[in-house]
Batch of 4 targets.
Target 1
Amino acid sequence: MRAHHPTFTGNRALAQIEPLIFEIGRLEATGVDLDEPGPHRTRLGGLERQEPIGLPGLSEPETMRHYVRLSHQNYGIDTGLFPLGSCTMKHNARLNERMARLPGFGDIHPLQPISTVQGALALMTELARYLTTLTGMPAVALQPKAGAHGELLGMMAIKAAIAARGEAATRNVVLVPESAHGTNPATAALIGFKVRPVPARDDGWVHIADVRPLLGPDIAAIMLTNPNTCGLFEPRAKMIADALHECGGYFYCDGANFNAIVGKVRPGDLGVDAMHINLHKTFSTPHGGGGPGAGPVVLSEALAPFAPVPFVRDDGQGFQLVENADDVEGASPFGRMTAFHGQMGMFVRALAYMLSHGSDGMRQASEDAVLNANYVRASLSDLMSLPFGDKPCMHEVLFDDQWLEGTGITTLDMAKAMIDEGYHPMTVYFPLVVHGAMLIEPTESESKASLDLFIASLRDLAMAAKAGDTARFKGAPYHAPRRRLDETQAARKPVLRWVPPAPMPAQAAE
């Protein structure tokens, strides 16, 4: 499927091949001129470098071109629809970016005197007010740098509350549904809890009848995602919360999918005790590539006293950042989660999103996210199979691989073929409770025209798969900068260091 006209450079017009910087750099080249150091006495104590450092050198134009060319090989939300399920890859408004770059926010430092950052602390206070109002929870801790970090904070608050009751030795089991994000059991296990699974049913929901037999004096909490990873709202969440509270446990809600219910449902009304909120998903702050993230945790009245420091307090004379647990009266902070107060840039972006949308706009964003996901579901349900039946979903729609049975094509093949069509693949093989899962989350950002083209592309791929066009899938992607990798080998034996190629033998060189 590639063009049959090779080029001398290997480039294909604007599709340029870009080698590693080690392959094109030269030891003698540099984009910066530095004066030779004058006479000086070394303080390295015999640790001076004896060999050349071996870093590649490029001129400034070469450096710029190298990274710009690499950026052309990336796919992002500014490139096209990004359907990764459970990731909420929505549009990042440029207004939010402009606000984050204002000098009073972009140029401050966490060690500045408190008197010089009153505006930043006021913004954090206002963001906290929005988050507690939207969730119906009395308190929020802003420090966590990501969703999993937020999970850790919430579960550590639960552990502290249990210890304060004198039950640390006996109340040590956390219930986790089989459809949960993998970070849920990992977080619980990390801080010493035992994990007990809640079985999945063929309707995609967690049932109170499956939870009740597991409850007892050893249960510390349940970690329930709502809406869940199958793209469904958990209708029995309040019943589950009440049952946990009756047995002395707590209800941790994984808020990764809060984008589907903002302005529609307040988790506090469902009996939630702790829930992290991914600002980098629900409230449109950029994410990907390892950060930056932000995962504030809202807390119930029962857990609020155990929230960690630091936090902002208005003492009537101005805002203060409470840094020490000993300075908190009537509460027992379990400690610190991070050196400072969280991701300031993400706080600014998230509040800008909230203010620009207003309460009605945020509610409409959730409604549109659900509408778009159901439009995708309804448009593909005749060709692709739905593991829990053709019923309404929330913000994302989940397909399985039953419709591919007998074609010789797998979920992975389908994902790779999507790359050739110009789309980032959907989330594949998650949640694990569904065989060959394909999880699509279009978010509210997409127009009907954008969705129609995406749907038409998937329909074309689905029909090609059923028609036996296996070559289109098994070799895909054909048009990407790199062909398909051996992903198992890449995971088990990653090559993390560049090694110069061996010099050619003299005879071969001749």
Target 2
Amino acid sequence: MSTTNVQQTSAVAYASLEDLGERQTAVRNAISSMGAACNQKIADYLGVPVNQVTGRVFELRAAGLVREAYRGIWLPTGRNVIWWETV
């Protein structure tokens, strides 16, 4: 007999996937595809302005679907930015 032990946070995050909007889904999928990405990298990947990404990342973070992976330098600007990863 096989049993699966799923963390409660993982179960909640998985259930939240059904409630995502189109843009939230696109942003989450972009982060997942790249492994980790900052807002500008996500915007470049999706071909949209960064202001269409920042709010969606905030919403995904609040839902527990993405988290901060690390902080690092975005080379094109030399700025310190947050890199996100999916949960």
Target 3
Amino acid sequence: MPVQNRDIVVIGLQPWYTPIGSNCKNIATEFSKHNRVLYVNVPLDRKTIYTEKSDANILHHKERLQAKDNSLVQISDNMWNLYPLSVMESVNWLPSTNLFRIFNKINNRRFAAAIAAAVKSLNFKDIILFNDNDIFRGYHLKELLQPDIYIYYSRDYLLAVDYWRKHGQVIEPLHIAKADIGVANSKYLADRLKSYNPNSYYIGQGCELGLFNPELTIPRPADLPPADKPILGYVGALTSLRLDISLLTEMARRQADWNFVLVGPEDEDFKNSALHGLPNVHFLGRKAMTALSGYVKYFDVCMNPQLVNDMTVGNYPLKVDEYLAMGKPVLATATPTMELFREHVYLAANVNEYMEMAMQALAENNAERAAIRRSFALSHTWENSVAGIYEAIDLYEKARLY
């Protein structure tokens, strides 16, 4: 049973105007089907105000800040978007966590004041405050805004990144512990939440798979290599923090009769890698989201060759659902989260296993397997994921009655 007729405030790491896919935006949209929702953009910090000269959306936020008006925009019948008219101090690189906590509390008070003004303007009552992984800016909001329920959502292990690790190693466990409810999109992250807060739950991941339909007629992209060899492909950002360059290099060297197609922007490590010297490795660059399914459609095997590290070990692989929705055989690195996919994905832990699983995937693909893969991917909806949040709220509300 969905939560209905509540007032929900959503904060997080991505503003509404973010051009990329966003769990936070999708969850807020699902909330708004039965509730009123205030989606709060990330507040600007002083460094961004002085240094950002090109991002049109940030410049628009700066204009609103300077004009001191039009901070609240209605998105739909049940949802509003807030541009906070408060400036955060840029304090994350302060050497002392104790000193950082002092300034972070000042930032939280400014942020809370902007949210409280919008809540009052909209006449929101007994709010549910949903925080999408914002460790620092959300740390004091439970005390400052006094929500009826405070939910902390974990969808990435942020402490793997220097920016968050510096002070987050101390602050995030305390933050998780004081939330009323913790929710996560992978079992690995849910178990981590539970180590600090017993009221924590795995809610799965929603996906928007409308673009990934194998029945659509899509012309073969002209920049793909000829179809005379099997294509093992990857779509997404090519970053050495997440992907195993040495694994890809060794696979391509061992099997010259396969083409390896990599679609997406490269970081410096990829640009400078030995992959560029291999004739059967093809870098096709960044493509529009609407074009990606056209490449996946002509892959023989789709890959997610992740490194296993703090950043990836609990990460939910959205691209795997996109691959599966196209009915494609998928080859991926074995991680705790990928165990959820084991019946539908070829999992490998090293280059030898990758080679073996790739040959198996090529040999046994058929229409029946493709249909099963697509059906599995399509079960991962935002409706089902948010239903998990609603169940957690229901359990919490029942428990506090006694």
Target 4
Amino acid sequence: MTERTVAANDVELWSEGFGDPRNPSILLIMGGNLSAMGWPAEFVELLAAGGYHVIRYDHRDTGRSTWRDFSEHPYDFDDLAADAVAVLDGWEIEAAHIVGLSMGTTIAQVMALDHPKRLRSMSVMLGGALDIDFDTNLERAMAGEASLEGYPLPRQVFLDMLQMMSRPAEGREAVLDQRVTKWQMLFGDELPFDRAEYRRWEERAIEHAGSLAEPTAHYTVSLPPTSRGAELAGVTVPTLVIQAMNDPIAPPPHGRHLADLIPGARLVEIPGMGHALPGSVHEPLSRAILAHVRSADAREARSGQPAGTGTTSC
């Protein structure tokens, strides 16, 4: 593993590479208010063992990257997508396979629209399409109202989790217990939840950041205009959409809807998976991603043309 801090506009971003840098690269983009530690090293190592150079990084305002007062230094998803591109630049990577989770799904879509030549393929999970107004949907879920788009709203357990996390926790043990309980609520009830596993990962995240404080800045970042969803019809990068079948934030059929918007996109469903990355889903998830990126690599080798510059299908 190799650590590297890269410059991204006016911030610095911490990053870490796994595997042989001579191999094709995979860039992992984590969800909101989570550092690179949100990608468990055990999962990252499975991807690297598949023959790839895998990079995870801390978003701004998380982990060891630059933290600032959002009200004084606001940013949007265009900036977050530019951060991901800056990480590629910092590692001298022309194009990579992009894997986005939750907020990372939104960032990956913006990258595919605005920086298509930097993507060799795209794999996204635990998030929705750009034409879904998640912020309004969350408000409607809290008010007990129906979705305007007709797709499922976040489930009550997610609203309960937000309320639980709003209560202050005092001391390391209380903070750890609260953070593990958060994941248990997002995890769902179809797979066994291993509190010891999540405690270990949360301890890593706290040690990595050097603070018990959880990031919150990304709650303030405005979503891209829903009108950008129509632009997904022009995306040519090979795309895999992974639907966690027990996701309380983006439940089915959000994955199918996103896949339908991108020509040739393929949908894979992971039974029992919630809005989390437990060890029990690492194997099927890594297999799906590796199969997709290998297929994209093979197609690129046959055509002699980078994936983002021509029409492709999955």
